[in-house]
Amino acid sequence: MAWATLSRRLSMVFAALLLVCCGASVWLQLRSNGKHEQEVIQRLSSGLAAHIAQNAELMKPGGLDQGAVKDLFDKLMAVNPSVEVYLLGLDGRIEAQAAPPGHLRRDRVDLQPVQQLLAGAALPIVGDDPRSPDVRKVFSAAPLRMNGRDAGYVYVVLQGEDHDALVAHTAAGTVLRTTLWLMGLVALLGLLAGLAAFRLITRPLRELTVAVKRFETEGMDALQTEAPRLARLSRGHDEIAQLGQAFTQMTQRIAEQWRELTLQDQQRRELFANISHDLRTPLTSLHGYLETLMLKAATLDESERRRYLEIALDQSRKVGRLAQEVFELARLEYGVVKPDKENFALADLVQDVFQKFELAAEARQQRLRPDIASCLPAVCADLGMIERVLTNLLDNAIRHTPMGGEIEVQLRAHETGVAVRVSDTGAGIPAQLRNSLFMRPVFGSRSGSSGSGGLGLVIVKRILQLHGSDIRLLELPDRGAVFCFQLAGAESG
Fold first, then answer.
1. Residues near 164 by beta carbon (within 8 Å), at least 6 away in sequence
2. Residues 472, 476, 482, 485: is their CA dihedral positive or negative?
3. Residue 451 confidence (pLDDT)
4. Is the pLDDT of residue 1 over 50?
5. Cβ(84)–Cβ(67) under 8 Å?
6. Sheet of 417-424: strands edge to edge?
7. Alpha-carbon span 373 to 325, nearest angstrom
8. Whole-angstrom Cα distance, residue 199 to residue 401?
9. Parallel, antiparallel, or unpaired: how do β-strands 482-488 and 63-64 relate?
């Protein structure tokens, strides 16, 4: 599992860091202990060199008594094997010493640490070890005076070769074992604590993984059961809570889109079913009249034959019109047609559309009445598409308004543009058709109507959706069907 891999990686990284930290801690502790030991030894032995320098047996009238010096050095080193005593000249050269043959590796000692010690600098101060070319050790030093003049220095190394050998022999194994046990114990306790912490930290990730897996296997049904888990994950302000919030928002958005797609699929199925049903009626009528003409051609007079042909032609027009509307709706549905927006005066477009329907309205003794507010702002839309919207609405209104009725187009300024309302004095939309009015073709569906509506209202809805608007059906007293929608105002510049 992904979370297990993440936990393992985190545990391995944590264990490695823990080991490094333990090693660094042990090294720092040993170093600190060593510094502390050096300071203690140097403070305890601070007067040793001065005491040796005051020993009169080291002197003789001609200078140093080499025999007395060597004898004293041997006694001191026998009493305290950890110290090594040297007499230095004023230039730091080793003038006398008691080292075994071949052990001396330097013939000169750097005097700067000696001067620092004599000046009272902070301890510990390390200086050169004559028996090692690289190692520096704590020491005690004092000036040596002969006949009232400075003759050199007494230089005492406080942790000599014997001290190093004894420490290495007696303590190396113990320190190593103690260090390893300490590191192992600290690493084990730290690792256990880290694993427990990682498990708590990755718990929300595991729960989120379970939710994702269920969502992957069970689909949208898992959203209801996983909602409480996702709600818990979304609490807090850390990165995991933000991840839970993002996943919750994503699932909600997917759920909404899924419901919308399901509704659209259902509407599309109903649309196809309704189109098939509504095509069957004019085709059946067309087939019946053509069959009648063929069977009774010899017995029908000219007027009957003409009437049958007109009815068949009218049904053929219905089929052709519906086929054209289906093609246009398909182009709108699948994004073949995109709005080419421009700024124009909607009042002028309404007057142009009225002119197209003047003859049809006069034939039915109907009145087309524009109700256009003054100082109306321009709109930004696709001129051809909006013309089709008005054409479909007016055509629908004329066909479903009785003789002597009125069709009105009202334009009013709206906070975001222009509000449009198209109404008539017909019988209105039956209650059983209102919910599906913009989702299915309508043929002769209004009471008392004799024409056909087809997919006109469905196309109107799709066009307005492409413009970020929608169409609504209103109920107003003394009016029949009342449709309204808004168009965005013209863009400046």
1. none
2. negative
3. 37
4. no
5. no
6. 367-372, 406-414, 417-424, 482-488, 472-474
7. 33
8. 74
9. unpaired
Gap between the Cα atoms of 370 and 349, Å rounded: 11
Residues 6+ apart with CB under 8 A from 231: 248
| CATH, domain range 234-337 | 1.10.287.130
CATH for 342-488 is 3.30.565.10
Is the Cα torsion angle 446, 448, 453, 459 positive or negative in sign? negative
Identity of the amino acid at 447 = S
Angle between helices 2-44 and 161-218 (to 10 degrees): 160
Q: Rounded distance, CA 341 to CA 347, Å? A: 17
Does residue 460 contact residue 422 with C-beta atoms inside 8 Å? no
- How far apart CA 365 and CA 403 sit, in angstroms, is 6
User: 109 is written with which tokens?
Assistant: 């000692």
pLDDT category, 361, cuts 50, 70, 90?
very high
Evaluate whether 296 touches 483 at the Cβ level (below 8 Å).
no
Quick: pLDDT tens for 91-113.
Answer: 888 887 777 777 788 888 888 99
Long-range contacts of 55-59 (CB under 8 A, 24+ apart): 58/144, 59/146
C-alpha pair distances (Å), 185 with each of 13, 25, 194, 198, 240: 18, 13, 14, 20, 32
Q: What Rg do the C-alpha atoms of the chain give, in angstroms?
A: 53
Classify domain 56-157 by CATH architecture: 2-Layer Sandwich (3.30)
Residue 491 gets which letter from DSSP? P
Handedness of CA 374, 377, 381, 383 (dihedral sign): positive
Q: Is 189 exposed, middle or buried (0-12, 13-18, 19+ CB in 10 A)?
A: exposed
Backbone angles phi, psi at 6, to 5 degrees: -65, -45
How many residues comprise the chain?
A: 493
Structure confidence at residue 403 (pLDDT): 92
Residues 30-65: tens digit of each pLDDT: 677 767 777 787 787 778 778 777 765 666 655 556
> Could you tell me whether strands 367-372 and 406-414 are parallel, antiparallel, or unpaired per DSSP bridges?
parallel
Environment class of residue 68 by beta-carbon count within 10 Å: exposed (0-12), middle (13-18) or buried (19+)?
A: middle
Cα 86 to Cα 80, 107, 110, 386, 393: the distances in Å are: 15, 11, 13, 111, 119
Distance of CA 377 to CAs 340, 346, 373, 381, 471, Å? Answer: 19, 8, 10, 13, 20
Read off the DSSP letter of residue 357.
T
Question: Which amino acid is residue 334, in one-letter code?
Answer: Y
* Whether residue 143 has a cis bond before it, omega within 30° of 0: no
Amino acid at 188: L
Helix (H) or strand (E) holding 244: helix 239-295
pLDDT for the residue numbered 219 = 65
